[in-house]
Amino acid sequence: MSHYCDSAPGHPFHGLYHDLVYGFPLRDDNLLFERLVLEINQAGLSWLTILKKAENFRRAYDNFNLEKVAAYDEKDRQRLLQDAGIIRNRLKIAAAIENAGRILSLRDAYGSFGAWLDHHHPRPKEAWVKLFKQTFRFTGSEITAEFLMSTGYLPGAHRPDCPVYTRILQRQPPWADV
């Protein structure tokens, strides 16, 4: 089975994501929210589709500003449903808006989304999936696992022999503390 570390390097979209983003720890709530929304939107589609549309998502969702997205109304939902630059799926759009509000609630209770993640770390993938299903909308096993790997909470984004793996370890991802 081919690994992302084999296929991504040198690719115009996957290469940059692999080398600079995937697996690196995130702390900023808006960036964590962005990653969650992108992972949700990938469901049923290729990651390449999402990478090609990432800038459109940033524009459409006000640069993933949690307060702004949580306050979206029906007019905003319709605007997003009409935006050909993003994935126009009613359930995924509703999940993004609802999840923004849920992250704001987590921030009120824990100080930040990252602090909530830290509070529940470490745990096995199955326990993370259960927690995410209880906390967020449209988060199944694959979405949760990819979100957590891509943000440094679960290992597996890169093989140990991948040069990026060492750079990620230098940034002290949460999974390395276990």
UniProtKB/TrEMBL annotation:
One of its GO terms (biological process) is base-excision repair. Keywords: Metal-binding, Zinc. Signal peptide: none annotated. This is DNA-3-methyladenine glycosylase. It comes from the Bacteria. PANTHER family: DNA-3-METHYLADENINE GLYCOSYLASE 1, DNA-3-METHYLADENINE GLYCOSYLASE I. Zn(2+) binds at C5, H18. It comes from Geothermobacter hydrogeniphilus. SUPFAM superfamilies: DNA-glycosylase. GO terms for molecular function: DNA-3-methyladenine glycosylase activity; metal ion binding.
